[in-house]
Amino acid sequence: MLSIKNLHANVEDKNILKGLNLEVKPGEVHAIMGPNGSGKSTFGYVLSGREGYEVTEGEVKFDGQNILEMEADERAREGLFLAFQYPVEIPGVSNMEFLKASIDTTREYQGKEPYDAVTFMKLAREKCQQVNLDQNFLKRGVNEGFSGGEKKRNEIMQMIMLEPKLCILDETDSGLDIDALQVVADGVNACRDDNRAFIVVTHYQRLLDYIVPDYVHVLSDGKIVKSGGKELALELEEKGYSWIDKL
Amino acid sequence: MSNSIDFNNHASLDFDELSQVNRLEWLSSIQNDALGAFKSMPLPTRKVEHWKYNDMSFLKAQTFKLNTNTYEDLAVSSSQIALPNSIEITFINGVLISDLTTRSLQPGIAITSFDSVSTEQQQFIIEQTEIDSKNALDNLNLALCNNGILIEITKNIRIESPVFIRHITLDNGAAEVTTNRVLVKQQPGSEFTLVELFDSQIEEDSTLTLQQSLFSIDANATCNHYRLNLESERAIQSSKVESRLAQSATLNCFFLGLGSRLNRTDINVKHQGNGSHAELTGIYLPANEQAIDYHSNIEHQVAHCTSNEIFRGIIADEASATFNGKIHIFEDAQKSDAFLNNKNLLLTNRAEINTKPELEIYADDVKCAHGATVAQLDEKSVYYLQTRGIDRQKAKKMLSIAFIQELLNKVKLEELNDFLTSLLDEYMSHLD
User: Fold this and answer.
1) If exposure means fewest CB atoms within 10 Å of the residue's CB, which of A49, A166, B216, B289 is most exposed?
2) In B, which residues are within 8 Å of A98 by CB distance?
3) CATH code, domain carrying A83
4) Which residue range(s) make up the domain with B284?
């Protein structure tokens, strides 16, 4: 589904990703762990197509297509979803209006039937409930005045509604208490199936107790330096990131 | 005799040399005073503070014909907005074309044109008319204007139907000056709504519209005023909107500036009775090379009055906008509460905004706040919307509409709100 070969990327002329390789198949959950400044967030931004994140070398194929030439919105409509570490607040655009615009355009692009207004409302309310968000959130501005946890749950709610093929979760656990973490993890786990893949980017092993990965990769200085099964996360937790420097 | 105005020789302008139609004897003394004031003042140029940000060089670049057309047989094109149940009045190039004498209105409202006002009404109009010490073009309007109406609302009456004035500008074969005045007299406890639409349909000529709307709002009365400028690229306007509020009177006004080569509107609010309240809301959206300028001056002349003014602008392409908002608290105006805020969004790096909030306070027990911001669309927000499949153009449109949505919500007339929502949606779709 996702094939990344020798990916190099710059941010403001600074080289952040330095030859990253990753293969993700449908149904798999990959965790990417790494210390601060290793390039974790940059990785998510580069894949999603953020302006100012310049790919200097390598290739990224998503379902066989070169996505590096696509705009961020086109990648999203192709089925790539990035859940943000810090979702932005957009006062004046209601959550409902935003969701409707997002889902309508995505479903149209993917050749799916559009939702009629009633079905859409019903679905949006249902998914709100699923991630434990009050329905009033739909009427409020996008993330406006939401707590950290509410923002993260809103991201997961959007993910569920958009039904993407590949979900990248960028430190979705940061700033969450245990209960919120459980809600977020339940949302993610409910989406897991044989056709959908996840890349879970995180500092801590804790999230991986809730979202159990098939593979764990360690990112250091813009490269994946070690890969393994879920037990690698536990080993990292025990030995710390300084351990990988010695590898 | 000639019927043109040459701004290169404005000091020698003389009524005897103008072939004006329908001169009104009872107005002549005021008109003479106003003309004298106009001739003795410097013309607006960038050298004068009050006109600093307006390019007025067009004044001297051509001679302007004075409109003498009475449009008696003209079929009026349908307006952009339909307001069912409204009392519709149409001016074309400043000239009243609606027949007010045959109209049957609900009790409590009277609308009379300047050529048929009673002696008592004449007296009221004369009393309300003031020479402007800063605005030469307003004085020119007073000097030349024989086209005006007086709207009167009776004590303790609430008029359900809005009055809808369409100020239409049409090509007339040459550059032209049009003049017009609307006066509103609200008796105590009355309530009414006025919608003014400036709908310029000029494609060839440069038309300079001089217009003045004056509101006298008596004790406990409420006035809702919507003033919409939906102008063509050639329209030039210099106008004045002034409201005088008596005790516990309320003014709710909404301004929208869209289009026009230059739209300069001076908004004056005078709190003259304790406990009056003014709510000013405005949106300006210049694009291409258009220029829009709102100059407001709120005077708290007496104690215990409140004002809330919010203007927002989105400036596209190479357009420019000016917002000058002044709050003036007089010495006796203790316990005044005034708030003023202006926010601007520049869509390109060639777009220009000149914003100047001003406070002038002579009382010591007041609460005043003012602020202004200038920003560009937040790239992070655009990117966030893009990552949810929304294309860049649409994302920018959503964010632009969001910027003014809060103000649009203040339009309480449902048909008008619907119209403006779709108008702005359409307008934003064409922005880069």
Assistant:
1) B289
2) 385, 388, 398
3) 3.40.50.300
4) 4-391
Which residues are CB-contacts of A12 (< 8 A; sequence separation ≥ 6)? Answer: A52
Question: Are residues B379 and B401 located together in one domain of the fold?
Answer: no
Over residues A198-208, the mean pLDDT reads 89
Interface probe for B, chosen from A67, A73, A112 (most Cβ of B below 10 Å), is A73
Confidence grade of residue B384 (pLDDT, cut at 50, 70, 90)? very high
In Å, how far is B357's CA from the nearest CA of chain A? 24
pLDDT tens-digit readout, B246-267: 999 999 999 999 999 999 999 9
The pLDDT of A217-230, averaged and rounded, is 90
Phi-psi region of B94 (alpha: psi -120 to 50; beta: other; left: phi over 0): left
* Local confidence band at B2 (pLDDT 50, 70, 90 cut-offs): low
pLDDT bin (cut points 50, 70, 90) of residue A10 is very high
Domain that holds residue A171: 2-245
- Please report where in the chains the tokens 């762990």 appear, as a residue: A33
Nearest to A102 among B388, B401, B402 (CB): B388
Determine, for residues A81 and B387 on separate chains, whether the beta-carbon distance falls below 8 Å: yes
Confidence of residue B77 (pLDDT cuts 50, 70, 90): low
Shortest alpha-carbon distance between residue A80 and chain B (Å): 8
Is the Cβ of B421 closer than 8 Å to some Cβ of chain A? no
Do residues A30 and A24 touch, judged by C-beta distance below 8 A? yes
Predicted pLDDT of residue B79: 67
Q: Tell me whether B408 touches chain A (CB under 8 Å).
A: no
Dist. CA A216–CA B385, nearest whole Å: 30
Distance from CA of A77 to the nearest CA of B (A): 5
The interface residues of chain A toward chain B in range 13-42, judged by CB-CB distance below 8 A, are none
Chain B residues touching residue A84 (CB < 8 angstroms):
384, 387
Using a 10 angstrom Cβ sphere, with 0-12 exposed, 13-18 middle and 19 or more buried, the burial of residue A71 is middle
State the average pLDDT over residues B366-389. 95
Report residue A135's pLDDT band, with 50, 70 and 90 as the boundaries.
confident
Is residue B295 within 8 Å of residue B266, measured between CB atoms? yes
pLDDT at position B1 = 46
Q: How far is CA A126 from the centre of its chain?
A: 22
Looking at the 3D structure of chain B, how many domains does it have? 2
Tally of structural domains, chain A: 1
ipTM: 0.95
User: CB A56: neighbour CB atoms within 10 A?
Assistant: 11
Do A73 and B399 lie within an 8 Å CB cutoff? no
Contact B35, B13 (CB under 8 A): yes
Asked if B318 and B412 sit in the same domain, the reply is: no
Residue from the list B383, B392, B398 with its beta carbon closest to the beta carbon of A50? B383
Do B277 and B398 share a domain, yes or no? no
**Cβ count near B407 (within 10 Å):** 18
Do B127 and B85 lie in one domain? The reply is yes
CA A75 to chain B, closest CA, distance in angstroms equals: 8
| B432 lies in the same domain as B304 | no
B391 to A105: CB separation less than 8 angstroms, yes or no:
yes
A164 close contact with B: CB closer than 8 A? no
Nearest to A90 among B381, B386, B387 (CB): B381
pLDDT at B11 over 80: yes
